[in-house]
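Aim 2 progress update. The chain analyzed this quarter is reproduced below.
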Amino acid sequence: MPSLLFLQTCYPKKHLSGFQKRTKRKRIDKFIGTQKGAMRKSAVRNDTADNLDELDGNGAEEQQPAENETTIEENNAHATTINLSGRENPTSVDEQGSSPFDIYDPRNWDALDNKARDILIEKGPTREYNLVFETDNVGRHFSYAYYSRKLSNGEVSDRKWLVYSKHVNKVYCFCYKLFKSESSKSLLASEGLMEWKHLSEKLKLHENSVEHITNMNTWNEVRLRLSKKETIDKDMQQEIAREKERWRLVLIRIVAALKFLAKHSLAFRGSNEKLYQDNNGNFLGVIEMMAEFDPVMQEHLRRIKNSEIHHHYLGHNIQNELISLLGRTVKYSLLRIIKDARYFSVILDCTPDVSHQEQMTLIVRCVNMSSTTTKIEEFFLEFLKVDDTSGLGLYNVLIDSLKSVGLDVKDVRGQGYDNGSNMKGKHQGVQSRLLATNPRALYMPCACHSLNLTLSDMAKSCGKAVTFFGVVQRIYILFSSSTKRWQLLLDHVPKMTVKSLCNTRWESRIKSVQAIRYQAPELRKALLELKRTSTDDAKTKSDAKSLASALEKFEFLLGMVIWHDILFTVNMVSKKLQSKFVCIDVTLKQIEGAISYFKKYRNDGFATSLDIARSIAIDMGVQPLFAVKRRI
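Predicted C-alpha cells:
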C-alpha cells in the first residue's frame, strides 16, 4: 500500500479527472465566447453600427449589442428612413443608445473589442495631470513621481506602461492588462493596485519580471506592425482605416456647420429633429444642403436611411458636446495669449438676462504678442452667474473665476468697472478689495460711462431740457403708434425718420435730435396735415396740434440747435472711447478737445446758435421771438 501511494504521487495520471475535464471545458467555452463575433465587429458591413471615431477620445460612446444594431430608440421608433430627395420618410437624428465609454480608462479594458484594443495599442496610454489623488486611511496616496524611475547610472526613465484611473483610485500595467494570460495573478493586470505602501518596490519588482518584459515586447511589436500595416489581418486593418477616414471627413463637415451657425448667432434646433421635415432647425438644414452637393455627407445620410449606423453625430447631445469642445478650445487659446503676456487688466460688468438671472461678464485686456504685430486687445472669457451683487460677492466671484482659469490675481495691473457703488466704492467696492489684495491693480472707471452720466445729470438738472426731450419723444410716439401716421410722416419727411430716445446712452440721442434739427419745417407740415386729416380721433388731433405749437416756439428751436451741438460733440468723443483700438494719449486729446469746445461754446456758441435758430424760424414762417409772460 505505501508503494502504491508512492507511485501515484511520483507519476502523473494518464487521463484527466472528471473535475479537471469540466474545468478545462468551461475555460475553452469562455475563451470561445469572448472571441465570438470579433471578425464581424471589425469588418465594415452594411448592418453594423461600428464607429471608430467614437472610441477615439474621452467623449466616446459605447458600442451597442449586436441584437440592437438594427433597432431604433423607443422615443423615435416611428421614425424609419429618409429620402435623400427630401420628400418622404423622415428619420430621427437622435443618437441611438449612446452612452459614455472611455477606452483610455483601464477599468473598461476588459470590455474592449478588437478595434478599440488596436486603437489603444496604437495611441498608447494617456495621463491626466493636475489631479488631486485620494488618500487611504493612513494618508498615503499615488503620486506623479511614480511615473518615473531612476536607473543605476543616474538616468531617469519614464514608466510609460504605468496607468492611473482616477475613477477607482488604482494603478494598472498597460501592456500587462492588455496582453495578460489566464495564469497571471498580478493585481496590476486584473483588478488594479491601490496598496500605496512600498509601492516603489512593488513597481520595480513588477517591471523586472519576465511576464512584464514579454508583454512590453508584445506591445511594441504589435504597435509597430499596426503602424506599418503588416499585421496578419492586413486587409481588415485597411478597411478599418478607410472607415476611420470617412468618419474624419464627416466630422469635419459637421464641425464646419456648427462653426457657421455659432459664428452668425443662429439657432441650431427646431421643433423636431428629423431629417427632411419642416421646422427641423438650421443645423439639420445645413446638413441636408451639404448632402445635395457633397458625396461624403450624401453617403452618410444614406447609411442613416438604411439603418446601417446608429451613431451619426447629428443628435442634440452631440451638438452640445461639440459646441462645448469648440468653446473650450477658443477659451484655452485666449488664455494662452493672456499667460504669454503675463500682466493683464480685468473689466467687469453686470446685467440681468432674459431669465432674470444676474450675469457678470469677465473681460481681460492684455498685450497680444502671439502675432508679428504686437497690439493691445480685449478678450471676453465667460459669463459668471452672480447671486450676491454686493462688493464682497462680486469680488469673490472674480477671484474664484481667475483661479479656475489659471490666472494669478497678483498679475492684475488694472481694473475697470462702471460707476456703481458696489464696483467703485472706496471701502466696500470691488476695486478697493482688489487693491487690498494687489496694490498694483490700479482702478480706472469706465470713461464712456462717466461721460454719459455727466450728460444725463446735466440734462435732468434743467427743466427746459426735460421739456425739450419730452416733446421729441412725444413726436416719435405719435407717428410710430400707427402705420397710417408713419406713412404720412414719410410723405413729408423722406430723408431721416424720427427716432425714440435712449434712456441709458444719452449720447445716442443725437439721432433723435438730428431728425428734427434738419427737418423742422417738414415735420411741422406733417403735424399740421395729421391735425387736418384726423377728424375721427380727437386725441390724435389734439396731440398733433399741441406738438405743432411746440415746434413753432422759438425757445424750442433754439434749444434744438444747442442740444444738437452738445450731443454731436459728446457722441464723437464717446465713439472714440468705445473704439476697438484706442490709445490713452489720443483719448486724452479727444477729451481735452471736447472741454475746449464747450468753453468756447459758452462764450461764443450761444450767439451762433441764436442766428441758426432765427433762420430756421424764418423758414417755418415763425417769428424769432421769445414768449413774454404777462404780469398782472
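DSSP finds 22 helices and nine strands in the chain. Residues 584-620 form the longest helix (37 residues). These observations will guide the mutagenesis experiments scheduled for the next reporting period.
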